[in-house]
Design a protein that fits this description.
255 residues, 12 helices, 3 strands, 7% strand
C-alpha cells in the first residue's frame, strides 16, 4: 500500500481519477488512530490524525498543525477527493473492524451523516488476508456490487525463474556475481546440485518463495553482499523467513 499511495499521487492518476485535482491519500496500518481517552474518532478527526501520523514529521503534533490539517480534510471531503487505505485489515482489533463495517454499511434509507460522508465522499481501499475479507462479506460488506476485489496469487516457480532471468539480471554486479544464477545459491542450489535435490529444495521453500516480495529481498541480499563476503545459504524455511523478516523491518524503519 506504500506504493499504491505513491501511484495515486502521480499526475497520471490525478488526471484520470480526480479530474486533475490532487486527492488526500490517508494510509492506516494495523489499527485506527484514537482519541486520548481511547475512544474511536469521528471520521473527520480520524482522517486528520491519520494524515498527520502518516506524514513525514518529527516531534509532537501541535494544535496549529491539527487545525490546518482539519481544513485540508474538510476541503477534500467536500470535493470527494479522500482516499483511505486500510492496510493489514486482518490485524485490526475486532472492535475496529466492526466500526469500519458499521461505518460503511449505512447504505439504507437513512444513514447517519458520518456514514454518508464515509460512503459518498470517500474512496476506500482495504487490504488484508482472505479471512478478513470473508468476514466483511458475511456482514454485508465487500460485496461484488459495490467493491472491486483483487487477490494476489502465489508467485509460481516459473514466475520466480522468469523474474530472475530478466536480461538486466544477467549482468554482473560489482562483486562479479550474476543475479540470474546467484539467487539460487542463497537457498542451497548450485551448478552441481542434481535435479531431484533442486526440486526438493524448491518445494521446501515454496511457501515463502511464492510471496512476490521474497525474491525481491533475495535479489537485494545479492546486491548488498560485499564482494569479500561469501553468500549465506538458507537451508530451511525458518532461516529464509528470518532474513526476509529482518529485511522487511529494516525497509519499514528506513521509510
Amino acid at each position: 500500500t506504500y506504493r499504491m499511495a505513491h501511484v495515486l499521487a502521480q499526475p497520471e492518476s490525478i488526471s484520470e481519477l480526480f479530474n486533475g485535482d490532487a486527492p488526500l491519500v490517508v494510509r492506516v496500518e494495523g489499527r485506527l488512530p484514537r482519541a486520548e481517552s481511547g475512544n474511536l474518532l469521528p471520521l473527520r478527526d480520524f482522517l486528520t490524525e491519520a494524515a498527520l501520523l502518516d506524514g513525514t514529521r518529527n516531534g509532537p503534533i501541535t494544535e496549529d498543525e491539527r487545525t490546518k490539517m482539519r481544513q485540508v480534510v474538510d476541503y477534500a471531503l467536500t470535493r470527494k477527493r479522500v482516499v483511505i487505505l486500510l492496510d493489514g485489515f486482518d490485524q485490526f482489533p475486532d472492535n475496529e473492524q466492526m466500526h469500519i463495517f458499521k461505518l460503511l454499511s449505512g447504505g439504507g434509507k437513512q444513514p447517519s451523516e458520518e456514514q454518508r460522508l464515509a460512503i459518498e465522499n470517500c474512496h476506500w481501499i482495504v487490504a488484508g488476508r482472505v479471512q478478513a475479507m470473508r468476514k466483511g462479506r458475511q456482514r454485508g460488506l465487500f460485496n461484488d456490487a459495490d467493491w472491486v476485489q483483487l487477490r494476489i496469487d502465489p508467485f509460481t516457480p516459473d514466475q520466480q525463474d522468469e523474474y530472475f532471468r530478466k536480461p538486466e539480471n544477467a549482468l554482473p554486479l560489482a562483486s562479479g556475481r550474476n543475479i540470474a544464477d546467484g539467487w539460487q545459491q542463497l537457498i542451497g542450489i548450485t551448478a552441481t546440485t542434481d535435479d531431484e535435490t533442486r526440486q526438493a529444495i524448491r518445494r521446501r521453500m515454496d511457501d515463502l518463495l511464492s510471496l512476490p516480495m521474497t525474491p525481491w529481498y533475495l535479489r537485494t541480499l545479492l546486491e548488498d553482499t560485499p564482494a569479500d563476503q561469501s553468500l549465506p545459504v538458507f537451508r530451511t524455511l525458518s532461516e529464509l523467513a528470518l532474513i526476509t523478516g529482518l529485511r522487511m523491518l529494516a525497509r519499514a524503519f528506513d521509510t
